[in-house]
Amino acid sequence: MDTRKEYESAPSFFPVAAKPVITVENLVKRYGDYTAVNGVSFEVKQGEVFGLLGPNGAGKTTTMEMIEGLRKPDGGSAKVAGYDTLTELGKVKAVIGVQLQSTSLFELLTVKEITEMYASFYESSVPVEPLLDSMILRDKLNGRVKGLSGGQKQRLAIALALVNDPLVLFLDEPTTGLDPQARRTLWDIILRLKNEGKTIILSTHYMDEAYILCDRICLMDRGQIIALDTPQNLIRSLSSENAIEFRVPDWDERSPEEQARLKSFLSSVEHISSMEERKNMFVLYTDKLQASLTDLIQQADAKGLRLTELSTRTATLEDVFIHMTGRSLREQ
Q: Taking 90 as the threshold, does the pLDDT of residue 9 lie above it?
């Protein structure tokens, strides 16, 4: 029996909205003395875009590769559509599509030829030309892969991952290295696939990408999960919706005692819920932006404290990460 049909028709599997498509329990991966993934557990529901967000080296790709069956875990387990990735790998492969972080394609084949070749690997596949049309590649059907732009190659990689009409699509850093327009085009495609009911696991280190695309985000750092929730709830965990950023340009020239006094002043600004210090850059979080900003400026002026690069913005997922780890998502 076809694995996909077996999955869709089996009464023992979940009611669509209730049980998870993916179950990950205590996954561990070690390389010698280094633990790349350390006890990761989560579930992914059907039809959601589930994001693995974290800096490079957080363990996102290794986690995905263990779920895909590409890398054997040293501990724990993973199931996709009810199939164990260790003991039922053939069935897992039949219901997933994978876009790897680095995809090597046959450069001299045409776009249509390489897609047809990938389609031949499966018992059943979707029609090639409509698939490529959905990836905005119709005018490249007969063009060679080597002539594609970076964004076109990424769209082709996603097309190849979709050729078997998978239940679950894995996208590993799909927009890394792309220009802003190419990134936006891929975002539109991912959102369309979500609207079509695809279950998607997406790894990224771009906070804006995770916020826009993901229903839930698994925030990872150093091989562990540090938070898992919707983007909105993660930001609400800061207890503030807005941030005031500024520099104190002569900060390093001040004595430790004076720095301590100024930190005490900054944290006492009206309606400030918390403060982050990043070298000589400060971020104050508040739910009453105008009142906090007015009080900050007035008190800083009275104390002769010069503030530069003063700006306001809404709180972001990067603020959540920094609040939890003391480091930026962009730090390696």
A: no
